[in-house]
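Hello,

Following up on my earlier ticket. Below are the two sequence lines again, exactly as submitted.
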Amino acid sequence: MNDFWIILVGALVACSCSVVGCFLVIRKIAMVGDAISHSVLPGIVLAFLWSGSRESILILMGAALLGLVTVFLIQLFQNSGVQGDAAIGVVFTSLFTIGVLLVSLYTQQIDFDLDHVLYGEIAYTPWHTMTIAGMDMGPRAVWIVGGSFFINIVLVFVFFKQFKICSFDAALAAAMGIPVMFFHYLLMSLVSVTTVAAFDSVGAILVVGMLIIPAATAYSLTDQLHRMIIISMVMGILSSVVGYYVATALDASISGCMVCVAALFFTLAFLFSPSHGLISRIWRRKVSFKSI
Amino acid sequence: MNMLEILRDPNTQWILLGTLLLGLSSGVIGSFAYLRKQSLLGDTLAHAALPGICIVFMLTGVKSISFFLFGAAIAGMIAVFVINVVTKYSRIKQDTALGLVLSAFFGLGIVLLTQIQQSSYGNQSGLDKFLFGQTASMVMSDVYVMMAVSLILILACTLFFKEFKLLSFDPGFAKGIGLPVLLLDYIIMLLIVGAVVIGIQAVGVVLMAALLITPAVSARYWTERLSVMVVLSGIFGMLSGVVGTLLSAAVNNLPTGPLIVLSATVWFMFSLLFAPNRGVVAKLWRRVEAKRKYELIKKLEKQGAHHYE
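Thanks for your patience. The regenerated structure is below:
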């Protein structure tokens, strides 16, 4: 049963990250996911100090709020003339620093394992169960990550057209009267909530990996956005299933193995994709040389 | 303890020299990385170093800093190569390639780390210190390595200043006049790898990116000339290293790495607000001034118009 729960959580993380990850990859802001997963640290620590427990919903909210602050600051610095990637770097490193310093300042008062927060272990999720009205509802992570997946899928489904136009041609979207900034922040809030929800149970590394790698794999396989999202979800689920069994065989970190398997899938797609793969590119070049 | 006592401590002196050099060299190479829109490369390379460190430990079984740095450098070069191949031969853009390599390498590193922890490699504690850095553990030989690397780095940046400048602003033109663009590209990346490798021990994997990015961004606020920016960025980095180390020596229980990054951030905030031309205060001042002028002209016009009637 534990196998099932772990794989389910992994698959849910993969799906919920894939939905927003595809947009990040298309909009060329993939590193924002990495930034958010680091800069939520002070939010988590402050909420922890405030509430005194790790289980509280306050932690989730504190982290999500910091995620939004991150996005807002990045946008602010970008508007004031700092290059996009450097703005991301400045914001997330300074927020992360504040988080680390807070942890070391209050290290006596709180039992806070920095390694656990950053490299959280998915293997423990089956034991953190949730009970509502005395009934065992299964692992907490399933509900939290599942909830974020549900929010993502509903919002992306409802506003698919808007998100799509904003991602590919923001100027056109603005001309059509779509509130571009609103959808930018909506997407970023989704990234932030997704990251935080998954982060708590599986750690930052799996979140960043699942945001970017399956989406990049799907991007090299198809030219259509809705197909890309579906392919990337399938890739994510496959990586979490295969990754889990590889991890049990090697007795190694489950999150790490899931990410490695996802990277393996990307390598395969990079080499053998029929439309954009390396081999088909070389093949096409050869054919066109011959025809000349 | 007062500052003088801290400064007299020979151990602190070594650490101070180390962080000073680290700040200087990462500030200098960081400004080129910034102009070439490769700021986050440092972040990726720092994360990518983890599997290199783990593999070296598994092969040799000894916890030697110079071996680890060697492993980190090899892993960093492989990461640079993979990023270049992926961006060149697929439709994946640079930011996605960076994130891809970052998470894939780091995931591999975590897998190897758990393998090391579970098997009988003896005393493996301290490997995870690389994640957050431990300045206090630096010894004289480490500082010698840092000195050598930062000397090479600064020398290379001085020698190839013209080439790097051209490459940063107009790579097409650089190629047109016959510069070996690809080679120079790899040299810059190699120098970034060098800065990252000496920085990992001091400030850790996650915060190393800050030393490459923040001083360069701060310096950009003050000037429009590359030479001034490189020097300023080096100075900002150096000051951050010194201030962070001294603060951490004066206040107990606070780690050095985050304090260095925090002081770099303070410099950034200062530049953001008070830089002469691009700073927030200067911009606001210009706006107020323009408004005042406009109103004055309007008032004069009104008076003038009244006068003509």
